[in-house]
Amino acid sequence: MPRKTTTTDRRIQKSKMALQESLLSLMQTNDFKEITITDIVLRANLNRGTFYKHYQYKEELLDEIVDDVITDLIASYREPYQHTDTFALKDLTSSAIKIFDHVEKNATFYTLVMKSRALSGFQIRIGNELKQLALQDLDNWQSNPDINYELYASYQAYAILGMIMEWIQDDYKYTAKYMAKQLLAFLQDRRMNTVYRTKRQMPHPTGLHQEGDRPDDIHAK
To answer: Could you tell me if 79 and 170 lie in one domain?
Structure first.
């Protein structure tokens, strides 16, 4: 019985993935308002009945795509300090920075963010999510009474967002690895000795080794 449930879940996930990919593909050449459910299911090689098992409107499908991307964005942002009590920027390695890998993995979506009216507000949402992550997850031990940390969190969030948007506009001409190294250089140049304490426990992190600075790490192929 559990095996049947697992098989069913996989089929549902496969159908949803096909519908999501279909919608994103259609949005590359069509305005969202012009895309029909028939267009979506035909591109996905599914039928309308399958669509309506999971969604009532195409807007629900797009909302799910956005929510999935946001969930993965949050996980990628938290990657460097998962399951640790302290987080020192001087000890951070570029291999621990996963936010650019996240963007690269969702490149079709993020490219659409730059040109689709249906996703015009997503840039602001990304900035707000990054700001809230900085405020919620990290305590700066070396707090400065002269600094408004809510404004500082906005500064950090939109600096990262600016790097992401520039990368997209340049058609991902750099590798995700190079972008991570650049972000690390910016952070460590400004606050090499800053130490944070995490406010929450996270899942176990991935390895934190440091890559070499090879030329093929810089430009995407």
So the answer is: yes
